[in-house]
Amino acid sequence: MPAFTRRLAATCAAAGAVTLSAGAFALASAPSAHAAEINKDMSFGCNAYLGTGPSPYQVWYKPGAPGAGADNQAPFPVSISATAPDAIYAGQSYSTSIAAKVSIPAGLSNATRELLQGKSIAGTSTATVIGVVNGTEKQTITGKLNIPSTPVPTAKDSQIVTTATGSASGLSAKTSGELVISAPGFTAQTVVTKADGSTSDVFLDCSAQGSDVVGTLTVLPAQTTSPTTTPTSTPTTTKPTTTPTGTGTTTPTGTGTTTPTGTGTTTPTGTGTGTTTATGTGTTTATGTETATGPDTTTGPPIITDGGSDGTNANTSLIAGAGVAAAGVGVLAYGARRRLGSRRK
Fold first, then answer.
1. Residue 246 falls within a domain, yes or no?
2. Vertex 286 angle, CA 285 and 291, to 5°
3. Which 8-state DSSP code applies to residue 63?
């Protein structure tokens, strides 16, 4: 491939590389998007390859690399704008929006316009960002940036200027101290588009020229957050009210029966001796006048006057009482007959 053509391809690649590099710097220097704005100018050298096959043709070189000529090794200036937090605390992670303005050298812009017949350039890039705390704690993150479609100016020697935008997150430090952020390099896949819509792929592998440090931040000790206590309301306790479900009434389960412990003995009143022995429960009352000359003993059921007896016992007592009365009458009649007989004699 002629040197001029190689320079053209390199020019296209360089444009994409510059944009990517800017994004890498912004990612490293702006871990958050709070207050302060950071602006940084850097320079990157790139190896540019035309095509994406297994053996792409190199068309641009890093400054001072073997094979580089005076017209194919110019560096890519990059201006970075990003925001950084007023304070960074250990253990916290930050994110930021970034913007990188890339100016492609005039020689590469001419090659893109004349040899590749490019009308626009666009692409994507992947940047490597390294953060080191106190010289020992190292963290590496990767940022993704988009290079928007940018028109290629038609005027000779005019530069192609692109602005890459994106965001980065995950930059943090475990301990307090000094956090040094660096952007050692990036890769980019750029596409140059012709008027007829056909494209040329240009791959770039870039590294920082000189120091790769893009910023230094101070990490403060981790913040101590006092736990938030939510007032607890004392629950209101209402004593339970028990309503009786009924009126308790105690009903005896049996009927008390009083049984005399002794045997009532009834002695008839009259002339004669008569003994009535009543065996049972209750009170036996014998009423009448009895005249007897001999030992007459009348034995019969007692008359029970206990109001607590049941119907059967009451009937039995009445019958027994009647029997006693009849016996008494019989005795009296017998006595009367004997007296009359004695008088007749």
1. no
2. 160
3. T
Mean pLDDT, rounded, for 283-308: 44
- Residues with Cβ within 8 Å of residue 169, at least 6 apart in sequence: 93, 94, 95, 96
How many whole angstroms separate alpha carbon 208 and alpha carbon 270? 158
Q: Cα 214 from chain centroid?
A: 43
d(CA 145, CA 128): 11
The amino acid sitting at 251 is: T
Q: Is residue 14 part of a domain?
A: yes
- Interval 141-184: pLDDT, tens: 887 889 999 999 999 999 888 888 887 788 888 899 998 888 88
Q: For residue 95, give both structure tokens.
A: 């994110």
Split into its structural domains, the chain has a count of 2
User: Is 75 within 8 Å of 84 (Cβ atoms)?
Assistant: no
CA angle at residue 341 from 338 to 345, to 5 degrees?
Answer: 140
Range of the domain at 333: 265-344
Q: Look up residue 101 and give its DSSP letter.
A: E
| Element counts in the chain: helices (H) and strands (E) | 3, 15
Residue with tokens 């009126």: 247
- Residue ending a domain, among 196, 220, 244, is 220
pTM: 0.56
Whether 192 and 338 map to the same domain: the answer is no
Cα separation of 325 and 251, whole Å? 41
> What one-character DSSP code corresponds to residue 197?
S
